[in-house]
Amino acid sequence: MLPTMKTADQERDTSSIAQRFKVAVVQAAPVVFDRERTLEKVHILSGEAARKGARLVLFPEAFVSAYPRGLDFGAVIGSRSEEGREDFRRYWESSVDVPGPAVDALSRTARSHSVYLVVGVVERDRGTLYCSVLFFAPDGNYLGKHRKTMPTASERLVWGFGDGSTMPVFDTPFGKIGAVICWENYLPLMRAAMYAKGIEIYCAPTADVRDSWIASVRHIAVEGRCFVLSCNQFNLRRDFPTDYRSAFGDDPDAVLTRGGSCIVDPFGSFLAGPNTEGEAILIAEIDRAQIVRGKFDLDVVGHYARPDIFQLHVDERPKRPVTTHSPEPSGETGPTTPTTTDTTTASQAASSEDRMICTRLTERFGIRHPIICAPMALVTGGALATAVSRAGGLGIVAGGYAGTLGGEPDLEAELVRAKPGKFGVGFITWALARAPKMLTKALQHSPLCVFLSFGDPRPFAAEIRDGGAALICQVQFLSQIDMALEADAAAVVVQGTEAGGHGGNRSTFPFVPEAADYLRQRSPGTLLIAAGGIVDGRGLAAALMLGADGVVVGTRLWASAEALTPKAHTDKAIGKTGDSTIRTKALDALRGVPWPQEFSFRFLKNKLTDEWADREAEAFRAYGTLSAEYVQARAQNDLDTLAVTCGEAVGLLRNRPTAESIVNSMAAEAASLLRYGGKLKCTSQS
Ligand SMILES: Cc1cc2nc3c(=O)[nH]c(=O)nc-3n(C[C@H](O)[C@H](O)[C@H](O)COP(=O)(O)O)c2cc1C
Q1: pTM of the entire structure?
Q2: Are 99 and 136 spatial neighbours (Cβ–Cβ below 8 Å)?
Q3: Does domain 362-564+654-678 have CATH number 3.20.20.70?
Q4: Residue with CA at minimum distance from ligand 1 atom 21
Q5: Which residues are catalytic?
């Protein structure tokens, strides 16, 4: 959503926002081994920086909550002490889960001060710690992370190595922002990779206090023709616990880290610092025009490169130590038919690690595949949500009509079923407005997200945020996106008319890129998810190419083993073509379900639609006359009257496999197609 709470200074400079703005480098000491108090310090210092006009605030390496300078963790070659193990445990306790409560706290800090926040943290991924940098947008959205790829010397004892999948550069209204941590900056090829991504605001959180470091950051600024923000801690022995067994003795006034933070322009000149005096917030005004002036004579990944001699290949695929191979579903997506000489099917071609596609969606929710199971009323219970999440997607339990329709599954029981894994909960918004307590009850189960569709999400936004859940808003028209942004949605799902169930009349193919452009302008931190007609890896790959961060899948998972869908419904649907569904408002009118006028309902044509689909006005005049008959039809599974709810993608269904096999094959096929796409020959006209 758009930044809130601007300082007076910020208000003044919004007209020149893209060219000139202020940045801050915070040189301070964390509250060592105390994550919560360190987060408070981040909040306070970010506020100070914002009041000084900064739009981006950078904190040092491993700030939350310690760069354990001087600790040896009781290790020598061939032996580790019990005390050293305890030191590691204490360090681990104070580290940060991503995502997790500390990330949520940092989001709140970014939002309340309306700044881009870039913070060094010690990230905990089960038994391994990583030295990471987290990025947040002024609307509070967590943008992603960079894990240090190369810890130095004794750091390797306590920090793992990040792989190539977390080297982001974010395109923001203030230019392209990325981070390279401490001595990673001495990897010339990593610098080249960042230059190739177009980095403009080069954040260099560090722990190096040597004069040679200052020379390095000036060099990088010149080499990359970018602004370098070098940020170190300033701390004294007294900033560490008294029982800290460091090599630096016990003099409380001894300086352990002397700072040296500075801000350098693309010509190597200092705009602020270096400061070795004490804790400080360094502020500098960035003039982005300097970047282009600098590129005039030096662009090391452009006119100053010699790719005929030197080339760099960067592998950004995530590397997982353990990958589970699941049996492939037998042909449920039909044959994959690439239109070139590549004749292997997607699932054959995809090796295990190539099955992963990392996007902002996978990052945001810590999932393996950018696939969300739609909260389908009467269909997505706890079993389906769990199966999708286990497979690496994100399952969203349907709260449907919030109990107002009658005959819906017991939501609380379904949420309990979903609870062992990651899960969200979804509601039809206009129905939730009639039974708002259902949201309160659902939030007590701590869902990761709340998915709202068909109505105004704003009245529920505060409760969802306070409940610790991310808000995902599904929209059917471009004009509804602003409401989602005002509700501070973490993600907007744009639903094409192809979708099963209720929806609007926009088509997925033009709707997704239009929404991508819209969000890029207004709220670049908000994720975009595509829905409607996405049934296999082809749909997923296409959605990503259209600008989405992931997809919501309904119809395909409606016909999965774990769905609550009656067998008679999928038996009737499988084998039908996409021509056999219809979108109409007549049924809701006849059965007396008060859907807002802009939404229609897609389901399989049947006797009822043969009779009524073309007579919507008449159906509204006969409002509710079919109500009792419809309830009876549901009890008797009378499919001549009852809606078999699925989308146009029904024409691609062949069977009813497990959700796990659907998610896995979708991800594998998309990865294979995207790889294949990268090999297409693109020739110039000449
Ligand atoms: C059986 C069924 C029930 C649905 N129920 C809901 C619902 O309760 N709330 C909602 O937001 N969307 C619902 N949807 C729409 C989905 O959220 C999603 O937009 C759609 O399924 C995506 O298109 P697809 O069906 O082509 O995959 C439903 C879809 C289906 C097929």
Answers
A1: 0.59
A2: no
A3: yes
A4: 554
A5: 61, 148, 182
